[in-house]
Amino acid sequence: MANNVYVIGFNGFGDCIYQFPFVKKASERFEEVYLMTAFPFLYESLKNVKYVRPQTGLLTCLESMKQYREDFWVPAPMDPVDPTQYRLDNTPFTFLYHDGMKDGKSMMESWNETIPIYEGTSIDFSIPIPRDHYDVALRIYNRIAFGTNKKICLLHQPGTRKEWVNYARLPKTEYFQFLIDEFKDEYYFVSVGNKNVEDYIGKLHTIDLRFDYGELNLMTIMALASLSDMVISYISFLIACGVASGTKTFCLFGGYIRPEMWIDYKYMDMDKIGYVAPIDFCNCHDRLHECNKEIELERLYSEFRDFAHREEELSEA
């Protein structure tokens, strides 16, 4: 019997970045991995992966899947008569981290229970970036560096997907503006996103460079994150890009899910990750709930300043 596995992945781009190391380990353990995903380009470096087309209406997923011919996809390895039966002795793995979160487990803990691979060690989230995407990002970086000596900060402002609304997890946009205003002499701020598929909440001013309408594809954004000095976002794909690139990454939380569910002290490099959240945090798991999102500006300033300068202070000590 073939030693294969069927991995039913998630449709969020950030989730797909986080699940990469688990899929990579599965590709090393099994002869073939059948992976349901809308983003095959993330896994191109894995040689024994076959891709199953997901059924989804998410706009980013649909746009991604357009680049692949119909014969690129393979059928899900399931019996055509009885869909509950898996052919080729496949072991189906489904990443149900939301269920784990409700039990107080982090995303990584939940996934590690599904594919028990990591034992008390930090996870390498890095993903190889194709040269053409890296070259585009490098040209942008060089253009910025030619005109300023400031450090580069990649930023994604609060917004919600047009077809999947989650207001509860969004922090206040004014907190992003506060950081921009307070640290404008230190950082050159670059905004990335896609207003064609998401609705921004409010407007950020004094951004130095904007790519807000999908001008940069997802792999180019990941490449640009790897070249930047700082990444700032709420719980979005850009946090995952920062984690995967090893760039300092700062997350602002709103409500919905506790920070410990996303920021994993056991499996992530906490020297590169910082965050701030309301002290009275709402763990409602309700996307439309009016959560408490208040963060004291003094605490926001000090948390970010201390995180941004952590390595400098250690080197001076």
Model description:
With 317 residues, the chain is of the alpha/beta class. It has 2 domains: 4-114; 131-316, Glycogen Phosphorylase B (Rossmann fold), CATH 3.40.50.2000. The protein has helices spanning 13-29, 59-65, 97-102, 107-114, 131-147, 173-182, 218-227, 237-245, 297-308, 310-316, and strands spanning 4-8, 32-36, 49-52, 91-94, 151-155, 159-161, 187-192, 198-200, 209-211, 230-233, 249-252, 273-276. It is globular.
What does the main sheet amount to? 6 strands, parallel
Low-confidence stretches: 80-88
Radius of gyration: 20 Å
User: How many beta-strand segments?
Assistant: 12
Number of domains: 2
Q: Using the 3D structure, state the CATH architecture of the largest domain.
A: 3-Layer(aba) Sandwich
Strand order of the largest sheet: 9-7-5-10-11-12
| Average pLDDT over all residues | 87
The top-level CATH class of the largest domain is Alpha Beta
Q: Any idea what the shape is? A: globular
Compute the separation of the termini in Å.
59 Å
Derived structural class: alpha/beta
How many DSSP helices? 10
SSE pattern, N- to C-terminal:
EHEEHEHHHEEHEEEHEHEEHH
Under CATH, the topology of the largest domain can be stated as Rossmann fold
Helicity range of the residues? 25-40%
Report the CATH superfamily of the largest domain: Glycogen Phosphorylase B
Proportion of strand residues: 15-25%
